[in-house]
Amino acid sequence: MFDINNIIRNNIKNLVPYSSARDEFKGEASVFLDANENSFGSPLDTAYNRYPDPLQYKVKKRLSEIKGVPPRNIFLGNGSDEAIDILFRSFCNPGVDNVILVPPTYGMYEVSANINDIETRKVLLTEDYQLNLEAIAAAIDEHTKLIFICSPNNPTGNSMHREDVETLLANFSGLVIVDEAYINYSRQKSFIQELTEYANLVVLQTLSKAWGLAALRVGMAFASEEIIEVMNKVKPPYNVNEASQQLALQALNNVDTVNNWIRETLSERDKLVLQLKEFDFVVDIYPSDANFILVKTTGARDIYNFLVQHGIIVRDRSKVELCEGSLRITIGTPPENEQLINHLRNYK
User: Fold this and answer.
1) Which InterPro entries match (predicted)?
2) Looking at the domain assignment, is residue 143 inside a domain?
3) I need a surface site. Which of 71, 82, 132, 303 has the fewest CB within 10 A?
4) How far apart are CA 64 and CA 105, in angstroms?
């Protein structure tokens, strides 16, 4: 049975968070002399002299309407990477606790663990890039606090079997973090719908991928109210800046545009897969639920270098375990994909 009090760090449990000026007064006023801001404005067309909403309520309210989740179950961070780091700092004691990673997977989980001095226990995915539940169970001990699952997975592109994730949620007494950065491209439904079923579930999403806002750095975590309260207590007071909040809010009113981009990306993905299969240096193309494909080749580094010479950059994943000989290729616009194929036709 999951109990947040059994996994939260004692110092975080007893932490009195910083109280900012915007925490202490949330109402309307005509004169603000409480936060030591520059009262004259900003040397910009838009005034950014006032501190932003520390809890980003307007953005969360709009996300709530789109996702069907109450604002109190939403955390916003400076990219999903901040949410990942805060989970480590909130629930893992440095030098004592450990987390489970299932490589090949997103590299920031391990980097963040190392920064926070948390042991990582790696359980390789199976040959078809699915969870090895028996090996995960064997790796868990009384100091295991978090399990990170990327689905759709980066760099392999596939979604994890839903029933396997549910098995972990039902049997693990720590947090199961399901990173859904690429969920907008997937045939699977989001685990957000399961928040009321599993108290130990944290779902990560982002505005960097399908929403096209990578430069704004706005990541999301969805979880129980008690988990979100802990994360809000640990985060910096103004972790999402005003410009990002304003622009994210504008973008979230353009759902139709994003949905059209998703449909075109999926169409281009299918087209690109068929074209790549024609090349004799392509050994395999793995099934993808993301806006990229993992392509196994006979000479990944040579192909990578050839494309670089022609101004086309893909990701060489050939040194990643279980991805030997593979390139990760993001789905571009139709002209970009056409350039890729045309240059590959000249590769020898």
Assistant:
1) Aminotrans_II_pyridoxalP_BS, Aminotransferase_I/II_large, HisP_aminotrans, PyrdxlP-dep_Trfase, PyrdxlP-dep_Trfase_major, PyrdxlP-dep_Trfase_small
2) yes
3) 132
4) 28
Q: What is the DSSP string of 1-56?
A: ---HHHHS-HHHHT------HHHH--S--S---SS---TT--SSSS---SPPPTT-
CA distance 348 to 342: 13
Domain that holds residue 187: 4-17+54-253
282 within 8 A of 300, measured Cβ to Cβ: no
pLDDT one-digit tens code per residue, 14-32: 999 998 888 888 888 889 9
Whether residues 241 and 269 fall in one domain: no
Question: How far is Cα 109 from Cα 292, in angstroms, rounded to an integer?
Answer: 20
CA distance 288 to 272: 12
Residue 32 lies in a domain: no
307 and 201, same structural domain? no
Decide: 285 and 273 in contact? Cβ < 8 Å: yes
Residue 182 to residue 187: CA distance in whole angstroms: 11
Decide if pLDDT at 8 tops 90.
yes
Q: What residues does 282 pair with on adjacent strands?
A: 297
Residue type, 101: L
Among the ranges given (31-40, 181-190, 290-299), the one the predictor scored with the smallest mean pLDDT: 31-40
Share of the chain above pLDDT 90, in %: 94
Q: Last residue of a domain, which of 253, 272, 293?
A: 253
Whether 157 contacts 286, CB under 8 Å: yes
- What sign does the dihedral 95-98-99-104 (CA atoms) show? positive
**Of 172, 165, 115, 103, which Cα lies nearest the Cα of 144?**
172
Residues 249 and 263 in one domain: no
Query: Does the pLDDT of residue 321 top 90, yes or no?
Result: yes
